[in-house]
Amino acid sequence: MRKILVPVLFLLFATLVNAGGDNKADLKMMEGTWKAVMEEADGKPAGEAEKGAPFKLVVKDGKFTVYFDDKKLTAGAIKLDAAKKPKEIDAEQGEGPFKGMVQKGLYEFKGTEMRVIFAEPGKDRPTTFKTREGEVLLHYARFVEKKK
């Protein structure tokens, strides 16, 4: 029994270390300032007004802040599970209208861009990058300050 248990524990530990490493690497890739564009909401393509809304996301040290028109809208902490397929994200709301609630979602990187789909707080995690009622799909591009 002991001969079997040691390799099993080693494999379990290696899996946990690897998953944690993926989480750290993905969180590092998320760090920075992003321009957000809504792609879909509630199962329908976003309208021009939603697509043009001035949302900005700032991620640093596992924390996020969302701005609308340069005014702070909400902030909180990010938890990732990069070992899941598709990758999972939880946005723990620390302030704003959903303070104390968790928004469950999925995320993926495509080159230097990122897509995230979130469910409303308290709802089940989305299963694909196609929205249903109570879900929103966002496309993020790295924010580049205009030189003055």
Can you characterise this structure?
This protein has a single domain, classed as Lipocalin. Helices cover 22% and strands 45% of the residues. The protein has helices spanning 2-30, 48-51; strands at 32-41, 44-45, 55-60, 63-68, 71-81, 88-95, 102-110, 113-119, 135-142. The protein is globular and about 35 Å long. With 148 residues, the protein is α+β, with helices and mostly antiparallel strands. A hairpin with a 2-residue loop joins strand 3 (55-60) and strand 4.
* Name of the CATH class: Mainly Beta
CATH topology: Lipocalin
Write down the secondary-structure element order.
Answer: HEEHEEEEEEE
Mean residue pLDDT: 84
Level-2 CATH architecture = Beta Barrel
**Domain count:** 1
Please identify the structural class as seen in this structure: alpha+beta
Number of helices: 2
Q: Major sheet: order of its strands?
A: 1-3-4-5-6-7-8-9
- Relative helix content: 10-25%
Please give the number of β-strands: 9
- Return residue spans where pLDDT drops below 50 for at least 5 consecutive residues: 1-21
Alpha-carbon distance between the termini?
Answer: 69 Å
Query: What integer value in Å does the Rg equal?
Result: 17 Å
In short:
The protein is α+β, with helices and mostly antiparallel strands and 148 residues long. It is built from 2 helices and 9 strands.
